[in-house]
Design goal:
This protein is α+β, with helices and mostly antiparallel strands and 178 residues long. The chain has two domains: 39 residues; 124 residues, Jelly Rolls, CATH 2.60.120.10. Helices cover 25% and strands 38% of the residues. The strands form four sheets. It has a five-stranded antiparallel sheet with strand order 1-2-13-4-11, with helices on one face. The protein has a three-stranded antiparallel sheet with strand order 3-8-7, with no helix packed on it. Strands 10-5-12 form a three-stranded antiparallel sheet, with no helix packed on it. The longest helix is centred in the N-terminal third of the chain and has 30 residues. The N and C termini lie far apart (77 Å).
Length: 178
């Protein structure tokens, strides 16, 4: 196998050409990115860390003796996002069509998942609520934990009133709010 080497002049020209092409592509890409980043898509929302902290502080200041308080981050076609603070245990519930994603932010709670609702009653928006869950699994939740609750699964959060529990709630395939 014969390896041919470029002359020093040809080698320098090839490098110059490659560097020139690189900078043209980089400049074109940067210009495209700059144009694209100046307009956000309809429905785009950014709650930066400062906004989340401010909302969390507002919720903590407004909780008082309430079982829960929340702020709506957004209601969209098919899903909604909320910041929720629970000061007391919630009722057990089942969503027939909605799934929940919960991301623990502050405090701790015990999740009861699965099993059967006790004293179940049907509610609007294809939901059921009960006083508790029989036969569910208990899981401790701490800041940073992420939990997915599929539609049809009984679930309940048990909260020590001395330590409120805050989480980001994403409802998927949410029944329309009326």
């Amino acid at each position: 196998m014969t390896i041919k080497r470029l002359s020093t002049r040809a080698h320098a020209a090839a490098i110059f050409l490659a560097v020139g092409i690189f900078f043209q592509v980089a400049e074109s890409t940067a210009q495209s990115a700059a144009v694209a980043s100046t307009v956000d898509p309809v429905g785009y929302v950014l709650w930066d860390a400062a906004a989340v902290k401010a909302a969390a502080d507002r919720l903590e200041n407004s909780l008082g003796d309430e079982a829960l308080v929340w702020e709506t981050i957004g209601n969209y076609d098919g899903h909604s996002v909320y910041l929720v603070l629970r000061g007391k245990s919630g009722r057990a519930e089942v969503h027939d069509t909605e799934s929940d994603i919960q991301i623990s932010v502050r405090g701790k709670a015990t999740s009861v998942i699965g099993g059967e609702l006790v004293d179940a009653e049907s509610l609007p928006r294809k939901q059921q609520r009960g006083s508790s869950i029989e036969g569910g699994n208990h899981r401790e939740l701490f800041p940073g934990d992420i939990m997915h609750i599929p539609s049809g699964a009984a679930h309940q959060l048990l909260v020590d009133p001395a330590e409120p529990y805050m989480y980001l709630l994403i409802k998927i395939d949410e029944e329309p709010l009326r």
